[in-house]
Amino acid sequence: MGPMLIAYIDESYNKDHYYIAAAVAPQSAWDRVDEGLSRIRETTSQLHGTPPDAEFHGHELMGGSGEWKPLRGKHREAAGIYRAALHVAQDAGVVYLFRGLDINRLNARYSYPDQPHSIVFSHLLERIDDYARRTGETDPVIVVADEIATQDVHKKQFESYQLIGTPGYRSSQLTRISAPINFASSRSSGGLQIADLAAYVHHRRNTVVEKHPAAAATMRRLTAQIDPSTTHNWTWVP
Q1: 202-28-187-14 Cα dihedral, nearest 10 degrees
Q2: Are strands 17-26 and 182-184 parallel, antiparallel or unpaired?
Q3: Fewer CB within 10 A of the end CB, N or C, for the chain?
Q4: pLDDT at residue 21, rounded to an integer
Q5: pLDDT at 149
Q6: DSSP state for residue 177 in the 8-state scheme
Q7: Are 137 and 95 in contact, with CB atoms under 8 Å apart?
Q8: How far is it, in rounded angstroms, from Cα 202 to Cα 12?
Q9: Are 58 and 200 contacting, i.e. CB atoms less than 8 angstroms apart?
C-alpha cells in the first residue's frame, strides 16, 4: 500500500472543445510542489514586480494579464516561469490524465446530449479510478476540483455514479475514488494551479496552430514538461 493519492482537476475549454486535466500525486509530492511554486513566486516578484502570492494561471501567465500583467509582452520570461512551474511538478513525480470532447460533433450526433462538462468529467473519473487500480492503491483517491458555480450538481452526479455506475460502455462505480468530491479555491492550492497550467497547455496544443516559430517552440518546451508524466490522454470525437 502506497501513500494516499490526491487528484487535482481543472478544465479548459472553448465553444468547440472541452478538456479536463487531472494532476495526481501523493500528499508528500504536493508539499514539494507548494514549496517549489513559492520559490518561483518569490523570484518572479523580485525580478518583475508580480504579487508575492500570485496564482499560477495558464491563460493569465501566457497573456500577461491579471496578476501577471507586469509580464505583458515579455513572452520569453512568461514562458520560462510557466515551464519552471511545470518542472516543479514533474520533479515531484506528478502524473497527468487528460480527457477531451469535440462539442460540435457531439451536438451533430445527439439531439439532446448531456452537458460537455458532465461527459468529460465522468470519463476522467473512470480513468482516475483505473489509474488507482493499476497502481495497486488500496486507499481511495481524493479528488479535488476547482470551486465552480455548478459544484453541487457535480457532487450529486458523483454520488449517483457510485450508486449505479457511470453512463456508457465503460460503466464504473468508481470504487477507488473517495466520496464526496472535494472543492477548493485554486488560490490556496498549488495542486489546482498545476492542473490549470496542464489543462491550458493541453487545450492550446490541441486547438491552436502556432503561426509564430517562437510560440511553437514555447509550446514544445511546455509539453515536454507534461508528456513524459502523462498516463492517459484521449479526446472523444462522437
Answers
A1: 20
A2: unpaired
A3: N
A4: 96
A5: 62
A6: B
A7: no
A8: 8
A9: yes
CA distance 231 to 222: 17
> Residue 10's pLDDT is what?
93
Grid cell of 222 as nine digits: 511546455
pTM comes to 0.94
Question: Is the Cβ–Cβ distance between 126 and 9 less than 8 Å?
Answer: no
What residue type is 46 in one-letter code?
A: Q
Query: What is d(CA 56, CA 186) in angstroms, rounded to the nearest whole number?
Result: 9
Other beta carbons less than 10 A from residue 75's beta carbon? 15
Q: Kindly state the helix (H) or strand (E) to which residue 81 belongs, with its residue range.
A: helix 75-92
Q: Is the confidence at residue 120, as pLDDT, over 60?
A: yes
Cβ neighbors of 130 (< 8 A, separation 6 or more) are 232
Alpha helix (H) ranges present in the chain? Answer: 27-48, 58-63, 75-92, 103-109, 116-134, 151-164, 190-207, 213-224
Reported as a single tens digit per residue, the pLDDT across 184-203 is: 989 989 999 999 999 999 99
Domains of the chain from N-terminus onward: 5-236 (3.30.420.10)
Which SS3 state, helix, strand or coil, does residue 232 take? strand
Angle between helices 190-207 and 213-224 (to 10 degrees): 130
Q: In whole angstroms, what is the distance from residue 12 CA to residue 19 CA?
A: 5
Neighbours of 13 (CB within 10 A): 18
